[in-house]
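Recall from the previous lesson that a structure prediction takes nothing but the amino acid sequence as input. Here we apply that procedure to Short-chain dehydrogenase from Christiangramia forsetii. The sequence below is the only information supplied.
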Amino acid sequence: MSISIENKVALVTGANRGIGKAIVKSFIKHGAKKVYLAVRDTGSTKDLEEEFGSKVETLEADLSNKTSIQELANKSKDVEIVVNNAGVGKPHTTIADGVEEDLQKHFDVNVFGLLRVANAFAETLIKNKGALVQMNSVASIKNFPHLSTYSASKAASYSLTQGIRADLGEKGVSVLSVHPGPIDTEMAAEAGFDDPASTETVSEGIVKALKASDFHLFPDEMAKQVEQAYKEFSENVVLADFSE
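The prediction returns the following tokens.
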């Protein structure tokens, strides 16, 4: 189903910086009526509040806490587009001290956080015939060794995104899986990626992909290279209906 941003109420987790902040700005640029800024630190969105006034509202949200996410959903019953952007991503190899603890941290936010958001907002999105946007990564398709635990968590979140699409899609909810490559964020800098794409590449891509009723978005140059290699598998396996 085609989703236009114009006159919609949206919610963006991790809205205070990086890609999340760019999504907020793009949504308002394209006519969103209101954007909820869902963040752990409610004092971190003052600049967005000053810039956009009543068009934004800050709400506390911690993806690692089920109660927090349920309270978030209870406070935003009018939301039509939920963007689950918040996540964690720290460099860590597979063969290393502390790898199990690191993987647990990544899964708690990037995987279980997605489940918490999807389940908490399901009823509202079904009622409002809305959309759920999940920030995955090219690392959900290929493991990058220096980001091994992050890659594993994103592979799991991508798999769950497919499941969410199956569950909610038949009830009128659009689901978009976003797979950026290196983007100009703190995470990309820490991981040592050179020449990252702008955050606006992702945010503007989301607006277009929702309008086009796409399931996958590979927004930047590196991601599009992955998309070309992945396209046949995606069409014939991921998007295929094996129930027929």
